[in-house]
Specification:
The chain is mainly β. It has one domain: Porin. The chain is built from 5 helices and 18 strands. The protein has an 18-stranded antiparallel beta barrel. The radius of gyration is 24 Å and the shape is globular.
Length: 435
């Protein structure tokens, strides 16, 4: 095992610091055909990500996930990804698709899956109107790490918010008008969301057609959206967001969302499940600042009213410990299975609590180190003061390749969100080749 670790990390160091190969420099030539827009497009990337993590065997979420495995304190894993995207345009029509293929090896097991993330037809009969139908990621909202108004999108991973997301099947239109005056642009986007056994079956209650809409305004140089979702699959939701550049290098943004009759399921230390219904009011406020020497700072505060209080999470972690001890003494997995079901119903989601602070600082090519971008990201749970800290460095000095070396350090007391994560730290190398 030690030899294998040494091999992978020697490979990581080689890839990170190797000079650009000779084939990265090509003779310049001019071909007029290359400037013409082609109807076909095909691109994407392949990715290889080895990682090493240190297990926290006393953490509740480690016990829930690995109760029947005798894992080493240091564990390695390997992930592979292929993302393909392509399009074809003819006249006013455009077809687009994005496919994600993932494979991995962890805890002596292989896993793989393939998903169509997006696949839709777009028609543009005029410069102001676009019609679309198919599987699509809408990416509504102005937040970087979280988007409380993204009622139709899957949640981002705040530790890596720029990753592609799997879309949902929709039919939509987008009508845009431009004006001279304080209101410069007005856009209206109605959306139909079918939820049936073969369409969006994880969106909500089945056998219903739901409607959503977004109104966009560019008003006094401020981007503003008003968003609504209505239908029988989910309770009604309303939201608004904004983004404004105070100066060319300083931007502020925010979101606010309301969910009617939200039902929150919680489980206490005895395994008793309770359901609370209320109108949930969530919001986000953030800023982005760029200095003259290319230092970018992003800060966001997020309040999620659908999240859990500290005492509710402590009860859940206590029940996992009780279920684990019952399993050790009797071999009965029933309580652990109940804790797993509770996790899947909401309490085990990423960032399940109510108040968070996100901060990220990155600098492009500091000290004239060409092609290097170091960064550090912190995500803090403001209710229990637990947090994750992620330093990283990205190298782009090889043609069509991006290499990222990233660590994730987790700190928190017992019964806190990050204190009960399954790992104390994780180190990951990600190598992407774009084509």
């Amino acid at each position: 095992m030690k030899d294998r670790h040494c091999f992978w990390w020697l490979c990581a160091l080689f890839l990170l610091f190797a000079p650009a190969p000779a084939w990265s420099a090509e003779d310049y030539s001019f071909d007029l055909s290359e400037t013409e827009k082609q109807p076909f497009y095909l691109g994407g990337y392949t990715e290889f990500s080895p990682e090493i993590s240190s297990a926290d065997k006393g953490a509740a979420l480690y016990r829930l996930k690995h109760y029947n495995h005798d894992e080493a304190v240091l564990a390695d894993a390997y992930a592979f990804k292929l993302q393909l995207e392509g399009s074809y345009e003819k006249g006013m029509a455009r077809l687009f698709t994005r496919i994600n293929v993932n494979g991995g090896y962890a805890f002596d097991e292989w896993s793989d899956e393939a998903n169509v993330y997006e696949g839709y037809l777009s028609l543009k009969p005029s410069s102001s109107l676009v019609l679309e139908a198919g599987k699509k990621t809408l990416r509504w909202g102005k937040g970087y790490a979280w988007n409380p108004v993204a009622f139709l999108d899957r949640p981002k991973n705040p530790d890596d918010p720029e990753l592609s997301l799997e879309g949902i099947v929709v039919a939509s239109a987008d009508y845009t008008r431009s004006f001279s005056g304080p209101l410069q642009t007005l856009s209206f986007t109605p959306v139909l969301i079918p939820v049936y056994d073969s369409f969006n079956d994880d969106f909500g209650r089945a056998d219903h057609l739901n409607v959503a809409g977004k109104v966009y305004l560019l008003f006094y140089d401020t981007d503003i959206d008003f968003i609504v979702l209505s239908g029988a699959s989910k309770t009604s939701r309303y939201g608004a967001d904004f983004s404004r550049n105070i100066t060319p290098s300083f931007e502020v943004h925010g979101e606010v969302a309301r969910i009617d009759d939200y039902q929150k399921k919680a489980i206490d230390s005895l395994g008793q499940i309770s359901v609370t219904e209320y109108d949930a009011f969530s919001y986000l406020l953030g800023l982005r600042y760029l200095t003259e020497n290319d230092v970018t700072t992003i800060v966001e505060y997020y309040h999620d009213d659908t999240g859990y209080e500290a005492k509710e999470m402590a009860g859940y972690f206590s029940f996992i410990d009780h279920a684990y001890n019952t399993y050790l003494s009797t071999g009965n997995e029933m309580l652990l299975a109940k804790a797993t079901v509770a996790s899947e119903s909401g309490v085990g989601r990423m960032n399940p609590m109510r108040d968070y602070l996100y901060a990220r600082i990155s600098q492009k090519e500091p000290f004239d180190l060409l092609y290097f971008t170091p960064a550090i990201t912190c995500i803090m749970n403001l209710q229990d003061s637990s947090f994750s800290l992620s330093p990283e460095v990205i190298y782009t000095g090889i043609t069509n390749m991006e290499v990222r070396l990233k660590a994730n350090i987790i700190q928190g007391e017992d019964a806190s969100e990050y204190g009960e994560k399954p790992n104390d730290y994780l180190v990951e190398l990600r190598v992407r080749y774009f084509f």
